[in-house]
Write a structure and sequence with these properties.
The structure holds two protein chains of two kinds. By secondary structure, chain A is an alpha/beta fold. Chain A has 22 helices and twelve strands. Chain A is globular and about 85 Å long. Classes of the chains: A alpha/beta, B alpha/beta. Strand 9 of chain A pairs antiparallel with strand 9 of chain B. Bound molecules: iron/sulfur cluster.
């Protein structure tokens, strides 16, 4: 997937002019926010559960190496195999080798953002395997040749009539005059087509919401049940998970599950939470014969101990993007890589580098809603600010920003000069605003005033007011 | 160095930790051994009757149907009646689970019972739940020689029998039972937490039942 994050501004402009997309995005703002609020209101202990979930992940990250080793031991005891992958290429090769070992014709997949991160599908297809995404949203965007625009609702940018057109284009063996007016008929058609694929797949690949060190278990959380059919029917079940998915015990995962669904879809609990441990046991009438876990690092181990460590608590619930005014305006694709919204703005530069992802932390109004709803209490705005600082230090900001901040820093270190210049500016600006109280345009600030008005200063600087207050006190 | 070693070394370096640190190892070992409980919400902590009522109510909130069958011996007839009432064929597939196998199936003469895994041709699957959680109306099903997982997912209609005494207030209580039944650190291959029938909201965020798994979930509380 080509990373277009550096072109965030151009992407955003394009997204805002896209009428279909804007219509679809209305569903995010209307649906998710209200549902989450209702679910949270029904659980009086919700805030304490958030604290508990945060503490569990903090503890786990502090001992990550040991929990990973304990987890691996349990997986092995259960008859499964853990494969460690330092980067995307290594993870892809491991999975390709597994598929090759059984000469897999058809590979079904449950929803996995890690699979997007390592660009698994094109690699599998190039090796001659048929790849079928089985989550309805993922299936739709696979037909469209697109990428997910939301981490839990991958096709949230697509409207119903677009789905109908895609189904008619691809499902050509069905009668052309069939009625596909209702979402129900679209779902029934996808169900029929995917049933065939489930039953004839050789390898099933799923992601994991959690890995449990105590038992060597991988957990997926879904509503459709597609992840289950993906893993119980084929001969081989491959789990692809990043290493921060680990939690110590079943008790710990119970705590985090209590905040996951409520934050994500506003459900009390997702329909299917499935715990998988090793291959099928002797005598089991169904289940996979082989169980593999591909444990991906891809830059995460280096985030530990940095100012971005807390991002590793993320459980991919999507609440931050559901509540983000920037996401509501531009959708997920504008962010230009796998992870959109506030969590993407923090994670993308960590994983692909600040040179490619460094523009994203600017896609924020710093309204703080993401942090206020994040079940894991991740300080997203603070981390976006860190990235902005880093980007500045590395001189990657556009020249005008750098020059402006440089001049400010020069003056700020010289209090007299600073007071003189800002005092002058405040008086000048007050005059220029001519009692309207705001500016529609300012020299050198066209980028700011193009989309919003700037309130005019009331004639005094902050420092002047502060001085006056102190005198009064 | 293998990727495993590289990754573990990077983690230790980032954390400023030493590979042989005994205190760290002891902290992790005791956490795994003791598995301390976190915060248990008050909602499910109820006396028996109230807990079972909450379990049923939470299930109904997610569009499942629930019936109480006081005498296990009545399950076959009640099941036949349920199928008839919903215009479903009188055929089911079930595993060899002791609770299900011990039922007087000859009492429901019209009912055709297939024993074993499901293959996708069956309309109705009958499973036995290992446990239930009143807090969210969640069923917990353990796979095993007598309990095929395919029965939970392939048929259009999923009927689950659960003994009233197996319904707990919270997930932690059932996990503790599971640990006792399978041994510490051991698990059935698949342990399904099921809360409602399969659904999707992927088309314009419209909620629809019956995405890939069962379109309907019916729960029989036995006892
Ligand atoms: S950052 Fe928080 S709110 Fe956003 S996806 Fe991760 S856990 Fe959810």
């Amino acid at each position: 997937m080509q990373i277009t994050s550096p072109a965030f501004k151009a992407n955003a402009r394009q997204a805002m002019a896209d009428a279909d997309l804007q219509r679809a995005l209305g569903n995010v703002e209307r649906g998710f926010i209200e549902k989450r609020a209702k679910a949270v209101a029904k659980m009086p202990e919700f805030e304490e559960l958030r604290d508990s979930a945060r503490d569990i992940k903090n503890h786990t990250l502090a001992y990550l190496d040991l929990y990973l080793e304990a987890y691996e031991t349990r997986v092995t005891e259960a008859g499964g195999k853990v494969h460690w992958a330092a980067d995307a290429a290594e993870a892809r090769n491991i999975i390709l080798d597994i598929c090759k070992s059984v000469e897999a014709r058809r590979v079904t997949k449950g929803k996995s953002m890690i699979s997007e991160e390592i660009e698994l599908n094109p690699a599998l297809e190039a090796a001659g395997h048929e790849v079928v995404e089985t989550d309805l949203g993922e299936y739709i965007i696979q037909l469209r040749g697109e990428h997910p625009s939301h981490i839990i609702a991958p096709a949230v940018h697509v409207n119903k009539d677009q789905v109908e057109a895609d189904f008619r284009r691809v499902h050509t063996n069905l009668p052309a005059d069939r009625n596909l007016d209702e979402p129900e008929t679209l779902l029934a058609e996808a169900r029929g087509i995917l049933r065939e694929k489930f039953l004839s797949a050789d390898v099933g690949i799923t992601g994991a919401n959690f890995l449990v060190a105590e038992t060597g278990t991988s957990i997926i959380v879904t509503n459709e049940g597609n992840g289950d059919l993906t893993q119980i029917l084929p001969r081989i079940h491959v789990v692809i998970a990043s290493l921060e998915k680990i939690v110590p015990t079943l008790e710990d995962v119970s705590q985090i599950l209590r905040v996951l669904a409520r934050s994500a879809t506003g459900q009390e609990f997702s329909v299917y939470t499935t715990l998988s441990t090793g291959p099928k046991h002797p005598g089991d009438p169904d289940g996979p014969e082989e169980y593999h876990v591909v444990l991906l690092d891809n830059g995460r181990s280096a985030m530990l101990g940095s100012e971005f460590e807390e991002m590793l608590r993320c459980i991919r619930c999507g609440a931050c993007m559901n509540h983000c005014p920037v996401y509501h305006a531009v959708g997920g694709h504008a962010y230009g890589w796998v992870y959109p919204g506030p969590m993407g703005s923090v994670l993308t530069p960590s994983l692909v580098g600040v040179d490619k992802g460094g523009q994203l932390p600017n896609a924020s109004t710093f309204c703080g809603r993401c942090e206020s709803v994040c079940p894991m209490r991740i300080p997203l705005p603070k981390m976006m600010r860190h990235w902005r600082e880093r980007e500045f230090e590395r001189h990657l900001s556009p020249a005008t920003v750098r020059w402006g901040l440089g001049a400010w820093a020069f003056a700020a270190k010289r209090p007299r000069l600073y007071q003189f210049v800002t005092g002058l500016a405040a008086r000048g600006m007050a005059l220029a605003a001519r009692n309207k109280g705001r500016f529609g345009w300012l020299p050198l600030a066209g980028g700011w005033t193009k989309y919003r008005d700037l309130p005019a200063p009331q004639g005094q600087t902050f420092q002047q007011m502060w001085a006056k207050r102190s005198r009064r006190a | 160095m293998s990727s495993r070693e590289t990754i573990l070394a990077t983690i230790r370096r980032s954390l400023g930790a030493n590979a042989g640190d005994r205190t760290r190892a002891a902290t992790v070992a005791s956490r795994l051994a003791e598995a301390p409980k976190g915060l248990i919400p008050a909602r499910g902590q109820l006396p028996d009757d109230k807990r079972i009522q909450l379990f049923a109510r939470m299930l109904e909130d997610v569009s499942a149907t629930v019936e109480r069958v006081a005498d296990a011996g009545d399950v076959p007839q009640r099941l036949a009646k349920f199928l008839k009432g919903h215009n479903l064929p009188p055929q089911i597939v079930r595993g060899e689970d002791a609770l299900l196998a011990g039922l007087p199936w000859d009492k429901a003469k019209t009912l055709e019972v297939k024993v074993g895994r499901a293959d996708g041709s069956e309309t109705v699957g009958l499973s036995r739940a290992f446990g239930g959680v009143a807090e969210t109306g969640t069923l917990m099903l353990a796979s095993g020689p007598e309990n095929p997982t395919t029965v939970n997912f392939l048929p259009e209609v999923h009927v689950v029998a659960i003994r009233a005494e197996d319904i707990a207030g919270d997930y932690e209580t059932v996990f503790a039972r599971l640990r006792k039944a399978y041994g510490k650190g051991k698990m059935p291959r698949t342990f399904n937490l099921v809360t409602g029938a399969s659904r999707s909201a992927d088309i314009e965020q419209t909620l629809l039942l019956g995405a890939h798994g069962p379109r309907r979930l019916h729960v029989m509380i036995v006892g």
